[in-house]
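Final report, Chapter 2: Outcomes

The project's central promise was a pipeline that accepts a single protein chain and returns its three-dimensional structure in a standardized token representation, suitable for archiving and comparison. That pipeline is now operational. To close this chapter, we reproduce one record exactly as it appears in the project archive, with the input sequence first and the structure output second.
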Amino acid sequence: MNRLYPLKFKPIIKDKIWGGIRLKTLLNKSCKTDKAGESWEISGFPGNISRVKNGFLAGNSLEELVEVYMGDLVGDGVFEHFGTLFPLLIKFIDANDNLSVQVHPGDELALKQFGSYGKTEMWYVIEAEENAEIIVGFNQAIDREKYMQQLNNKSLLSILNVEKTRAGDVFFLPAGRIHAIGPGILLAEIQQTSDATLRIYDYERLDDKGEPRELHIEKALEAMDFRLADAYKTGYTKNPDTPNKLVSCQYFTTNYLELTRSISRDYNALDSFVIYMCIAGSFTVLYHDTEREPVTKGETVLLPAEIKNVQLIPDQGAKILEVYIEGLKATDRTEELLDSII
């Protein structure tokens, strides 16, 4: 039987009213329009399941692979926890206009509202135009009554926290935190496998049929976390040739790797797949001692859990987001959620 290897998937391109051309020009995606907003790099989301594009497994869906290889692909604990549902959705997003102001529900509320998992996510900003902005959280202490008053008075934006952003910025968005991406931003998004999105405000835009886009005011109210955070932008170190932790939560861990030389990664203590998102430069994954998989800017690779030792060899240099799941603990509630979703 052929051994598993680093897997690449055919990107699923999503045209959006706010999309642009950077997925094509900066990340080398095959986009048919100038409104490409999202590239779903690795997806197990129903109806949008990724298919392998490299090696002997080319053409197979991610769901099929998880069903056949189980823990060898995703990790024993991950498979026990999620079954054939791949637990993370990995995207690149190009915002050429304002995205809607929105919020995502947590697991239990998402099960009630959408019949799915909730949506905790994070953003890593790859490129940002001068004065680009991201909305995240509130800029003052707020409660339900004041929030609704501002919303009804069409002055919601005045109470939202706005962050000037540039390449390298990181934002963690736990379920319940209000947010929106502004124009001129290209970013990587790591999130739970869910499309549970509640739109609150959309700048009074019309869809391609001339109709206002749907808002979810009441459902969003159920999901909203009104607490004021001390900071909304995530600080982190940038030491070269070693993993720098960006975000670690129950749903995923993401590290930043800036390679100036070859490094070894030992995953023997990790019971999970590993994902590499190449956000700059290019590198090669050396695995099974002698086999190689080249990775260029804009490419995403899924390293199966059974591959425990690799070398990452940069060409002229590379910047990588390394993503995995750690410390997974099954709970009765999680099992109940999974049973309900499946």
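Archive annotation: The mean pLDDT is 95.
This record, like all others produced under the grant, will remain available to the consortium after the project formally closes.
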